[in-house]
Amino acid sequence: MKIANKPIKSYLLIVLALTAFFGYASDPVKSQDGGIVDTEQEVKDYILHHLKDSHDFHLFSYTSDGERKHVGFPLPVIVWGENGLTTFMSSEFHHDDSGHVIVEKNDSRFVKIHSKIYELEEGATTVNFDDHHHPTNAYKVLDFSITKSVFGILIIGLLMLLWFSRLAKQYKNKSIPTGFGRVLEPLVVYVRDEIARPNIGDKHYRRFTGYLLTVFFFIWIMNLVGLMPFGFNVTGQLAVTAALAVLTLIIYTFSAKKDYWQHVLWMPGVPIFVKPVLAVIELAGHFLIKPFSLLVRLFANISAGHIVVMSLIAIMFTLKNELGTVGATGLSLVLSFFITLIEVLVAFLQAYIFTMLSALFIGMAVEEHDHH
Amino acid sequence: MEQLLNDFSPGLFIVQTILFLLLIFLMVKFAWKPILNSLNDREEGIKSALDAAENAKKEMENLNADNERLLKEARIEREALLKEAREMKDKIISDATNEAQEKAGKMIEQAQAAIETEKKAAMAELKSHVAGLSIEIAEKVVREELSNKDKQLKLVEDMLGETTLN
Q1: What range does the domain containing A89 cover?
Q2: Under DSSP, is residue A6 helix (H, G, I), strand (E, B) or coil?
Q3: Where among A102, A129, A145 does a domain terminate?
Q4: Could you give the CA distance from residue A263 to residue A252 in angstroms, rounded to a whole number?
Q5: Tens digit of each residue's pLDDT (9 = 90 or more) over A233-289
Q6: Quick check: B35 and A171 CB within 8 A?
Q7: From the record, what ranges are coiled-coil (chain B) (predicted)?
Q8: Among A39, A160, A234, B119, which is most buried by a count of CB atoms within 10 Å?
Q9: Subunit contact A188:B36, Cβ cutoff 8 A
Q10: Distance from CA of B3 to the nearest CA of A (A)
């Protein structure tokens, strides 16, 4: 039974990997007319739209009878506006993203513009836009919706819990895991021995390993899922990477030893007039530069990856006139295939770097300087 | 930059923070703690097993050395015993020989002494016998001789002379 299962699983993996690649390609290709992505501007807009979070889970679109049909499922919208908490399903916007469809709930009027939910001011019935296409009579609400990203976070969180708690249970009966646990165990050991222990030190690493392991697997799986068709661009959301970076900031701020603060605020061994300058630089480093480097690096790498892959796929129609259908498609296939492979590497690399730097920052904070 | 700030969703930030904290908590409780503990236990087990094997090897070596030493000692002891036995044997043999020789010497001496005494006795007997015979003969002769006076005197003289010579 077990033996029969394994090849099937690996085939599934290959199929999944292939569809990951074609998934990107299929979206824009489907366009013929009416609402459709085939010009350079439309491609640009599509890519930018894809990078954003979305309030419904869109699987694919097709055109029949000149009308654009979208296939997917709605997700719950939960917003905190003028009149408190309001919930409704995102299907009530009818896939409108320009502010035309107004949802009236709880004495408030909500519209969706560029994947953001706005609440109209009292008495307003339509949205007015300024020259930069910003709404003038509506303001953003605090949006706790189960967006596509949140949906992804929930799914991946549950998946991680399932995988690793099963691995944990396996140890109860025997000391060597079997099956999928055998794949996960070396990864856990890798994070512990190659990231946590060398950077934090033997004395303190145990306390932070839980956080580092969670961050590593969360980012890595999210990055990989982001490469799949219908995937979630979670680690490409600034809010998500910011939340992760702030957590690292909080952890290394509250675990910092006296030694560390002394080095930050009143650096020993430098002339007295340099000390305040250094303190300002160190404080900026502690509270701004370090978390900022974490959040921007992850966000920018993943977003850039998505943009590059989708742009290469878009070669299929942007260069159709110059290279012909076969030439453009071939070029697009070859280039996007190799970039996707690189993105798989980047997915791991960014998870590794984020975890590594977090461990490094924590290690700097808890380090004890014996030589002073 | 404005675009980025516009895209930043505070709601998502809050939701992500809450969900991620929850995830960390659950993962630490149900996954990382038991996994890391078991990994540690296993590593410690392996380490102690290796140490035990190393110790056993060392003990084995010690044992072997001991055995070797004992064997060597036993060999030396055996050789010493053999040597002693050989010496004892030689000593016993030589002692016995000496004793036998002594005894034999003594016996020979005794025999010689006995022979001497027997000889003396025999000589004495022979002398007395010869003396008796001589006396008898002398008697007979004397009887004959003494029948004549001159002859008697001559004989006495002769005999006296002889005796002094003897």
Answers
A1: 76-145
A2: helix
A3: A145
A4: 14
A5: 889 888 999 999 999 999 999 998 888 888 888 888 888 888 888 899 999 999 999
A6: yes
A7: 36-91
A8: A234
A9: yes
A10: 11
